[in-house]
Amino acid sequence: MDRLSIVDLVAIFISILALITSYVSIRLQIKSVILTHLSEKAKESNDYLSGLIEGNEIQAISGIFTALITGRQLLELQCNKYRISDRQSLINQFYLQLNTTIRMNLSRDTMSIKYDTLHVDIQKQIIDSIDFFRASKEKYS
User: Fold this and answer.
1) Which pTM value belongs to this model?
2) Over pLDDT 90: what percentage of the chain?
């Protein structure tokens, strides 16, 4: 091979390496944005705990699970849109950002309020959240 061919091959190799690095960087940035959204939803859910203390139990539980369901929907949308394959690791991080009171109640499969007194939609949200976090509960409980 002459000198020009070797230089061309090195340039192609460097270009391919730069392309791979860019791809990995973009994927990490996308995951970072998703985690930021999940962190906001976990914080929102955690903020509703004060309602349990203040006596607004049904409203607080509705808010907690609405935030969890919205977080799940955002996660699914983003994972599908950007073809994120390690979805469970994102769910685990979402779960670990929840207040331990919420996590303990998810582990018991109901909140510390009479399940029968809750509106059917809230009951469905609780069941959906329990199913969504099932693998995380098993891993971190």
Assistant:
1) 0.82
2) 57
